[in-house]
Amino acid sequence: MSGITFTYKIEGGDFVNAGKASSEIKRTLKQLNVAQKTIRRVVVSLYEAEVNIVAHAHRGNIDVAINSENISIILKDEGPGIKDIDKAMEVGFSTASPSVISMGFGAGMGLPNMKKNSDYLNVESEVGVGTTVTIKVALIE
Amino acid sequence: MKKDSLYHAIHIDIEKCIGCSHCIKVCPTEALHIWDGHSNLNTERCIDCDECYRVCPVGAIQVEDDGLAQIKQFTTKVALIPSVFMGQFPIHVKAREVFKAIQELGFTYVYEVEEGSQLVEDLITEKIENQEKTPIISSFCPAVLRLIQVNFPQFTDNIINLKTPVDITATSIRKQLKHKENVGVFYFTPCSAKITSLKAPIGEEESVLDGVINMDSVFNKIQATLNNVTPTVKKHKKEISNNAIKPDHILWSLTGGEIKNLPGTCLSIDGIKNIISFLDRIETRGCHEIDFLEMKGCDQGCAGGILTPQNRFITAQRLRNRAKYYSEYYNENPEESPIYHTDGISFDEVKTLKIKPRSIIKFDSDPMKALRKMEQSQKIEKILPSLDCGACGFASCKALNRNIIEGKADLEYCFVLQRKKEEIGELTSKESKGVLEKIWGEQKFKNNI
Predict the structure, then answer these.
(1) In chain A, how many domains are there?
(2) Taking 60 as the threshold, does the pLDDT of residue A11 lie above it?
(3) Whole-Å CA distances, B307 to A48, B219, B298
(4) The domain B10-63: what is its CATH number?
(5) What local confidence, expressed as pLDDT, does residue B386 receive?
(6) How far apart, in whole angstroms, are the C-alpha atoms of residue B28 and residue B111?
(7) The domain that contains A94 carries what CATH number?
(8) What CA–CA distance (Å, rounded) separates B316 from B250?
(9) Strand B109-112 with B38-41, pairing
(10) Complete DSSP assignment for B274-330
(11) Cβ(B295)–Cβ(B136) below 8 Å
(12) Rounded distance, CA A120 to CA A72, Å?
C-alpha cells in the first residue's frame, strides 16, 4: 500500500527538543485533513512516548509510517528497559528521577495515556538493553 | 453591510509595488507571492495581521479607507474611540479637548470603547469560574481569530463566544440613544483587521457598527484642531473625562490588559509569530495549567496597530499614565465610582456564533488525495534546494512546493533547478530568463550590466 514515512532521532536528556517529532507529525496529519480528534489522540500518544525516551533512555529512533488507513509509530530506544511492564502501565506509577519530575514530566501517566489514546499499543523491553513501543491509530473511523 | 467572507481591508497597489519580496517573507500564512512583477494576495490565506504593511518600502500595501464622508448619511453620528486613540496625544492634551475636536469633525457624540470592558471582564470571570473547556481563548483580536481558523482549527472550540468591548459598547450606545433619530456608530480603528471584521464578520451575522474610521487619516485633522486650542491651565483639582471606565480598563487593548483582574491562571502573548509558536506548542503538549489566554497580534497590543501614528511604547506609557490618573481620582473622591452603562445588557445580547475552522493547511479535503499529494510533496522536497531565497516568487521552498502540488507553480520557477535543467539541456537560458521575467516582470531584466 502506498504511504509516507518519517524517521526521527531522539537524544536521551534533550528536553529542549522533546516534542519536535510530535509537532512535525501533527503538522503532517493536519495536511492530510485527518479529523482533529484523531490528530489529538496520535499526538498525545506520540508525545508521551517521545518524552519517555528523552526522560529515561540514552537515545532512540522513531519510525512513523502513514497510509490512507492508519498511522503506525515504532519507538525503539537504547536504555535501561522496563522491569515490570504491567506495573508501568498502571496510572501514577513512575520511575522518573526528581530532576525529570521538576520539569513537569514523570507523573506516571505516560503509558496509561498512550494506551488510552491509541488503537494498538505494544511494549517490549529488555532490562539493560532497551524498549520498543509500537503505537497504531486508525486514521479513518 | 454586504457579507463577503474573503474580503480584506488590505490591498496591493500594483502601480506602486516594485516586486521586492519583503512582504512575502514576513507573511505568517504564506498568503503573498510575487507574479507579474508585483505582490499578489491570496484572500483565502490572509488573516489581516498587517505584517506585510509594516515592511513595504514603497507604501504599496494599502488599507481601505471609507473616510469621514460616510458619516453624513446618519443624523446622529457617534464616534466610538478606543483608548489607544487617546494615547496618540501628549499627556497635557485633555481628553475633553480631543472629544471636542472629534465633534468638530461632525460627530454628535463621542464614546469610549473600554466602557464595555467591565461586562466582558465579568462574563470571562464567570466562564473561568465555571471551569469551561480550557484554555479559554480571548475573542479580542480579529487577526488571532482568523489565524486560529486557518492554522489551528483545533482551538476554534476554545474561543470564548463573547463579543469584544467595541461591539458591546456599540450595543449599549444604541440602547442609550434609542430615542434619537437615525443613529450611526463609527469605530476609530488602529488596524486593518477591525475593518475586515466589520465588512466580513466572523462570529456574527452582521456587525453592530455602521462604519470604521481609520485612525491615521483622522489623526492629522484632530491634531490641526488641537493646535488652535490654547492648552488648558493645570488645575489643582483632578478631573476625569469619562466616568464610565474603570481605570484598569484604559489598558484593555494593551498586552496584559484583559487579564489584569481575572481569576485563575491567565497568560497574555503579543506578536503574531509568538502566538503561532505558542499555539503550536500547546497543540502538541496540551495546556492544562492555563485558564485564559489573551493573544494580541501586534507587539504592545493595539498600541502597535499599523494605523496608529505614534510610537507604540510611548502610546502604551501614556495609557498607563492615564490609568494611574483615573485611579488617583477615584481614590481622592471616594464618593464617586465608575458608572457602567452596560449593566442592563444580558449575555444573550453579547454572545457570538461559534467560530468555524477554515483550514488552509490541508493538502486536500479527501484524505486519500491528500496522501497522494503528500507523497508527491516529499519527492519535490528532495529536489528543491532549501535555500528559501524567494527567487521563485514564493516565501520559501516549502511554499513553492505547496504551490506546485496545488498546480499553481512549476519546478522551473526555482532558479537553482533552472541551472541544473540548463546543464542537462532540458531548458535553454532564454527559457529560464522567460520564467523569471514572468515572475519578476520584464522591467527588472531591461537594464544593461
Answers:
(1) 1
(2) yes
(3) 45, 10, 12
(4) 3.30.70.20
(5) 94
(6) 35
(7) 3.30.565.10
(8) 10
(9) unpaired
(10) HHHHHHHHHHHH---S-SEEEEESSTTGGGG-TT--S-HHHHHHHHHHHHHHHHHHH
(11) no
(12) 9
For residues A106 and A92, is the Cβ–Cβ distance under 8 A?
no
In sequence order, the 6+-apart residues with CB closer than 8 A to the CB of A32 are: A66, A139, B362, B363, B367, B370, B371, B374
**CATH 3.30.70.20 boundaries in chain B:** 10-63
Q: What is the pLDDT of residue B228?
A: 77
Predicted local distance difference test score (pLDDT) of residue B2: 45
How far is the CA of B154 from the CAs of B150, B188, B363, in angstroms?
A: 10, 32, 17
DSSP B114: G
Q: What is the Cα–Cα distance from B350 to B69, expressed in whole angstroms?
A: 29
Find all residues with CB under 8 Å of B234, minimum gap 6, and list them: none
Joined together, the cell numbers standing for residue B54 give 509594516
Q: What is the pLDDT of residue B234?
A: 59
Q: Give the closest of A27, A33, A36 to B367, CB-based.
A: A33
Picking from A19, A40, A139, the nearest residue to B367 by CB comes out as: A139
CB contact (8 A) between residue B154 and residue A34: no
| Residue corresponding to grid cell 446618519 | B74
Residues of chain B with pLDDT under 70: 1-4, 229-237
Distance CA B34, CA B421 (A): 23
Cell of B362: 490541508
Closest CA to B246 of B162, B340, B343: B340
Q: CB-side exposure of A82: number of CA atoms within 13 Å?
A: 23
Predicted local confidence at residue B230, as pLDDT: 65
Burial of B337 (0-12, 13-18, 19+ CB in 10 A): exposed
> How big is chain A by its Cα radius of gyration, in Å?
14
Chain B environment of A15 (Cβ under 8 Å):
none
User: Using CB atoms, which residue from B285, B361, B375 is nearest to A30?
Assistant: B361
pLDDT value at A65 more than 90: yes
Element (H, E) at B194: helix B192-199
B309-318 contacts: CB < 8 A, separation 24 or more? B309/B88, B309/B215, B309/B216, B309/B219, B310/B87, B310/B88, B314/B87, B315/B84, B315/B87, B315/B88, B316/B87, B316/B254, B318/B86, B318/B87, B318/B89, B318/B90, B318/B91
Predicted local distance difference test score (pLDDT) of residue A100? 74
**What local confidence, expressed as pLDDT, does residue B1 receive?**
42
ipTM of the complex: 0.83
Q: Which cell goes with B55?
A: 515592511
Identify all chain B residues contacting A2, using CB atoms and an 8 Å cutoff.
371-372, 375
Gap from B130 CA to chain A (nearest CA, Å): 24
**How are strands ordered across the β-sheet holding B76-81?**
B109-112, B76-81, B183-189, B211-214
Range of the domain at A132: 4-138
Adjacent-strand bridge partners of A124: A132
One-letter amino acid at B115 equals: E
B363: distance to nearest CA of chain A, Å?
Answer: 5
Q: Please choose, from the candidates B241, B219, B196, B192, the residue with its C-alpha nearest in 3D space to the C-alpha of residue B62.
A: B192
Task: State the cell numbers at A13.
Answer: 536528556
* Cβ(B164)–Cβ(B204) below 8 Å: no
